[in-house]
Structure to design on (81 residues):
Protein backbone atom coordinates (compact mmCIF):
# COMPACT_ATOMS: atom_id res chain seq x y z
CA UNK A 1 0.00 0.00 0.00
CA UNK A 2 1.39 3.40 -0.97
CA UNK A 3 1.39 6.59 1.11
CA UNK A 4 -1.09 8.09 -1.36
CA UNK A 5 -3.53 5.23 -0.80
CA UNK A 6 -3.14 5.49 2.98
CA UNK A 7 -3.89 9.23 2.97
CA UNK A 8 -6.80 8.82 0.56
CA UNK A 9 -8.30 6.09 2.79
CA UNK A 10 -8.43 8.42 5.81
CA UNK A 11 -12.01 9.75 6.04
CA UNK A 12 -12.41 13.31 4.70
CA UNK A 13 -8.79 13.41 3.49
CA UNK A 14 -7.45 13.50 -0.03
CA UNK A 15 -3.79 13.85 -0.98
CA UNK A 16 -4.59 16.60 -3.49
CA UNK A 17 -5.90 18.76 -0.65
CA UNK A 18 -2.36 18.84 0.74
CA UNK A 19 -0.43 19.40 -2.49
CA UNK A 20 -0.04 22.65 -4.35
CA UNK A 21 -0.75 21.58 -7.92
CA UNK A 22 -1.91 25.00 -9.13
CA UNK A 23 -0.04 26.63 -12.02
CA UNK A 24 -0.32 29.95 -10.21
CA UNK A 25 2.43 28.92 -7.76
CA UNK A 26 6.00 29.58 -8.86
CA UNK A 27 9.33 29.55 -7.05
CA UNK A 28 11.23 32.84 -7.35
CA UNK A 29 14.61 32.90 -9.04
CA UNK A 30 17.76 34.52 -7.74
CA UNK A 31 20.74 36.31 -9.24
CA UNK A 32 24.37 35.32 -9.24
CA UNK A 33 27.45 37.13 -10.54
CA UNK A 34 29.89 35.52 -12.96
CA UNK A 35 33.66 36.03 -13.01
CA UNK A 36 33.21 39.26 -15.03
CA UNK A 37 30.85 40.67 -12.35
CA UNK A 38 27.80 40.39 -14.63
CA UNK A 39 24.55 39.44 -12.84
CA UNK A 40 22.63 36.43 -14.19
CA UNK A 41 19.15 35.10 -13.42
CA UNK A 42 19.53 31.56 -12.08
CA UNK A 43 16.96 28.74 -12.17
CA UNK A 44 16.00 27.97 -8.55
CA UNK A 45 15.45 24.30 -9.40
CA UNK A 46 18.61 23.25 -11.25
CA UNK A 47 20.95 26.24 -10.82
CA UNK A 48 21.48 26.82 -14.57
CA UNK A 49 22.20 30.38 -15.70
CA UNK A 50 19.25 31.69 -17.70
CA UNK A 51 20.09 35.17 -18.98
CA UNK A 52 22.29 38.14 -18.04
CA UNK A 53 20.86 41.33 -16.58
CA UNK A 54 21.67 44.85 -17.65
CA UNK A 55 22.05 47.74 -15.20
CA UNK A 56 18.73 49.22 -14.15
CA UNK A 57 16.69 46.21 -15.32
CA UNK A 58 13.21 45.93 -13.79
CA UNK A 59 11.23 42.70 -14.07
CA UNK A 60 8.06 42.23 -12.01
CA UNK A 61 6.15 38.98 -11.82
CA UNK A 62 7.45 37.56 -15.10
CA UNK A 63 7.36 33.78 -15.43
CA UNK A 64 10.17 32.06 -17.34
CA UNK A 65 10.76 28.44 -18.30
CA UNK A 66 14.19 26.99 -17.54
CA UNK A 67 16.41 26.32 -20.55
CA UNK A 68 18.05 23.32 -18.86
CA UNK A 69 17.59 20.14 -20.89
CA UNK A 70 16.47 18.08 -17.87
CA UNK A 71 14.68 20.83 -15.92
CA UNK A 72 12.12 22.85 -17.95
CA UNK A 73 10.51 24.11 -14.70
CA UNK A 74 8.70 27.45 -14.57
CA UNK A 75 9.89 30.12 -12.16
CA UNK A 76 9.05 33.74 -11.42
CA UNK A 77 11.42 36.70 -11.67
CA UNK A 78 10.90 39.81 -9.54
CA UNK A 79 13.73 42.27 -9.93
CA UNK A 80 13.95 45.96 -9.22
CA UNK A 81 16.91 47.88 -10.67
Amino acid sequence: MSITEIINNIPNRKLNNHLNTSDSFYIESYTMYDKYNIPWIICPFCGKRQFPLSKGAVIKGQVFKCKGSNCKQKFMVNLEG
Summary: The radius of gyration is 18 Å.
